[in-house]
Amino acid sequence: MKLIALLIGLVVERLATQLFHLRELRWLDRIIDSGFRQVDRFANWPAQIPVIILAVILVLPVLAVVFGLGDALFGFPYLVLAIIVLFFSLGPRDIGEDVDDYCTALEAEDEDEIQKTAKALSEKELPSDPLERIQAVEEAVCIQANNRLFAVIFWFVLLGPIGAWSYRVTDLIRRRAVFNASRDDESYKTANMVLEATGQLHGWLAWIPARLTAIGYAMAGSFEGALSAWRKTDGISAKTQSEHSEALLARVGIGALALHSDDDESVNERGVRGATAANGMVFRLLFIWAAVIAAMTLSGWSL
């Protein structure tokens, strides 16, 4: 049942691009902010405890509906619910569309649009140097592929809609914490503490899928380049488990791409080639995951 829901959900995700704005789920921001404020009230507690409680509260509605449906009507309501939850758990933005927008901006040599589309991919400020920005975008594609796609699929296969939604909830909480930490507001004086706690929680759920995705990059790209990059740990200074996983995905993904500069191409042409190659590797890996999941199902796994 989960395999059918997964395949349908991925097809729906490809076709319903006009609905992607609904996946931003901005209406949850007030609930998340309210949960963050509890860190002030329980200052003697580790910040992870209120954050975990907040995540559990946001997951409970889906948990209740899943158990309430059970096997009613031969599991058809569960199938519909699983597809809906998967759709809202993926993303929120589509990597392929973000890459296309970035490449279009590069080809048009529109610096403002390049900065805008590059930031949409990386979800953070990027270096102003064009060559450094190119590599940062390629790394961002490798990182966001796990965050927006593969980690969600992993938890969906493992725990169904509850697993997929749990992962997305931790990502929503982390994103909101990053936003709050960037604000100069006295009401968020514990923002850095919350940011570290949310990064830790998200990192726990991202740890396994991040490493499976990194292994997948080695299969979908240059195995030797990926393996060599995996072994390199010099100069890595990550504070949270989430940052450790992102650093691994970035360097292994770049190693698997194994791209070399061409003297005959411009900086923007190199940027287009790199982003397109990274996006292509992600989609090759998606097909590999689909084949592995299908093989697991045929071999007797209950999916």
Describe how the helices and strands are arranged.
Layout: H1 2-15, H2 29-41, H3 48-69, H4 76-89, H5 95-108, H6 111-122, H7 130-159, H8 161-181, H9 191-220, H10 223-231, H11 241-257, H12 267-298
Helix pairs in contact: 1-4, 2-3, 3-8, 4-8, 5-6, 5-12, 6-7, 7-8, 7-9, 7-11, 7-12, 8-9, 9-10, 9-11, 9-12, 10-11
Number of domains: 1
Which radius of gyration do the C-alpha atoms yield? Answer: 20 Å
Give the number of helices: 12
- Classification by helices and strands: mainly alpha
Termini gap: 6 Å
How many beta-strand elements?
0
Largest sheet composition? none
Q: Assign an overall shape.
A: globular
Can you tell me the residue ranges where pLDDT is under 50 for at least 5 consecutive residues? none
Helix content: over 70%
Explain how this protein is built.
With 303 residues, this protein is mostly helical. The chain has one domain (2-298). Helices cover 75% and strands 0% of the residues. It contains 12 helices and no strands. The protein has helices spanning 2-15, 29-41, 48-69, 76-89, 95-108, 111-122, 130-159, 161-181, 191-220, 223-231, 241-257, 267-298. The chain is globular, with a radius of gyration of 20 Å. The termini are close together.
Properties at a glance:
single chain; 303 residues; mainly alpha; 75% helix; 0% strand
What's this entry about, in short?
With 303 residues, the protein is mainly α. 75% of the residues lie in helices and 0% in strands. Helix 9 (191-220) packs across helix 12 and helix 10 (223-231) runs antiparallel to helix 11 (241-257).
